[in-house]
Amino acid sequence: MPPTAPATSSRRPAAETAARPGRAARAPSTCANTHLRGVLVRSRLRAGAVPRKEPARQCRKKRDDRVQMQKTALDDLDRSILHALQISPRASWTAVGRVLGVDAVTAARRWDRLRSTGRAWTTCYPGVRLIGASFTAYVEIDVQSGRAMDVARALAAHPQVVTVEHLAGGRDLLVMVLVQDLGALSELITEHISALPGVARTRAALATRVFSEGSRWRLRSLTPAQQRQLTRPATDQPRTELDEHDHRLITALSRDARAPAVELARETGLSAPNVRRRIAGLMHRGDAVLRCEIARDLTEWPVAATLWASVPPGEIDKVAQGLSALPELRMCSSVTGPHNLLFTLWLKSVADLARLETLLADRLPQLQLVDRAVTLRLVKLMGKLLDERGRATGTVPINPWLPPGA
């Protein structure tokens, strides 16, 4: 039997493989990679280095971030539902679904999700006729360093304080208040605003006329035809004096303007049919405003700016009309004080403010801008308490009929 040749390996040593010209070196085997990684990790741990996160953990974190983003972002249907409720805050889900081409259950479920997370809400507050019979003022407040949010939260607890904003530029806080008479305004400012710890100085300007306010602002998601389907024709309503039941109804609606009539009846002591009649009358007479609102950072206009301007008295109506044509306009009011016009814009960015100012200078040369401030945080908006992300967390109903401090 011939001797057997010694077995030879088909695998060449790494050094030999690398030395052969014209052939690329092979990568180390998987086992070798694993062994080397283990050696490196052990050496890093001995040196006190912090190990990197495992790839699986990183994947889970990215997935969780995507899920969270999906939960907070708005899709086209969300925006359409919100636009529909901006037009008709108490529209039935059947009516909303018919206009949007979805079933009522889907529309209701989407709204419940938005409302429960504080991303959208409805509220109610006294309308133009009541505001005209009352007194609206804008109070600028300077505070001691580091006390802005303490003062803002304390102010937000007052039912006569409608809106509280923390601003960058010229003043620390801007507060809108609504009271029954000038004496109540004096008491509110001197005894309940200026007396707060941390308040350094206040300046107040009375609104002489409100040309536009936030309930008229729209998301622009629906077609004109869809908007017409949701718009109710105006009907003549006899002017009547509001009674205590109306006051209680407006207060109840401020918590949830879509609350069922049966629920509102229990809260106000009225019958459900009476509640429905009173709500219709309040809305058509302009005694109450029902409003659907959305967290600003979820829109295309996440930045808010307030501007002060001077306009010749004879031109102020024309200028206000021109401002009202701007889709960015949220509020416009003539005021007392050194500057006679105050208005608020929602913008796509801080830089967008310069574009708007250039546009206004071209379209409305009689408008002289004298100051502007960007909102850093909205603490309270028309009675709704908001967190640092602008989500609704609670309600302090607007009640100008209460004495200050009540």
UniProtKB/TrEMBL annotation:
Disordered, as annotated region: 1-29, 47-66, 222-243
Compositionally biased residues, Basic and acidic residues: 51-66
Any one Gene Ontology molecular-function term assigned to this protein's record: sequence-specific DNA binding
Composition-biased stretches (Low complexity): 7-29
Keyword Lipid metabolism assigned: no
Entry keyword annotation includes DNA-binding: yes
HTH asnC-type domain segment(s): 74-115, 242-282
Biased composition annotated in UniProt, kind: Polar residues: 223-234
Transcription regulator AsnC/Lrp ligand binding domain: residues covered: 139-207
Record-given protein name: Lrp/AsnC family transcriptional regulator
Organism: Saccharopolyspora hirsuta
